[in-house]
Amino acid sequence: MSAPQTDMGPIYLVGAGKMGGALLQGWINQGIDSHQVSVIDPNLQTGVSTLIQERSIRLNPEFDALAKPHILVLAVKPQVMDQVLSGLGELLHPDVVVLSIAAGCTIASLAKHAGARTAIVRAMPNTPASVGCGMTVAVANRAVSEADRKVCHSLLSAVGEVEWIEDESLMDAVTAVSGSGPAYVFHLVECMAEAGQKAGLDAEMSMRLARQTVIGAGELLHYATGSAGQLRRDVTSPGGTTEAALKILMDEDGLQALMERAVEAAAKRSREL
Question: What's residue 1's pLDDT?
Fold first, then answer.
């Protein structure tokens, strides 16, 4: 993660569900002054509500009672985005920076409400953000300055790693790889556990082995200096059990081909949405 930037001016968080709540917790952990933050959400979850009370964060304030936001973070479901934006009124002032983490909401769709000259950043985090290990990819329109980008980068990095792209159309591929990717890993654990059962292990032990193996492999990958391919080669002894399994997984119609089909299906669906 990048070094935290803690003095950002007024920040409004619109929507404090799972992802919005994760961001809010990350900001507090990062050292952002809770008095800089205002939350707009009429239906708070219990955990977030407790955090807001403990940190004396403003909740659903009158828009004209506080300074206009420097950053307006949109963390609502995409199907209600138009309705929410229509009700924000003066919060969408000309100098605000809009940072949206709503899946599928394009910069153009946000600009219909915020204005074509408004600085807008569209970001795609994934669910590991809820434990501070997310992968977020962001894209900015031309109105976003370098200073604005740094502020948004700092806010997003509170829940994990951040990458930037210049071509918004690549967000479909991003969604297919990192956005939907955690589900692929969870299903891998399910498949490994099921295969272990068929090999003779009881269900509970097989799931425990599969789960911890993926957790441990992820940590090893996190700390390793080499590539994933190098790690694979390092644990594959010639003529051994791992090599025997990899001959199946790396066959012409094996895991690579299957993953390419899966990612393409997800990207296609993202384009349709």
Answer: 46
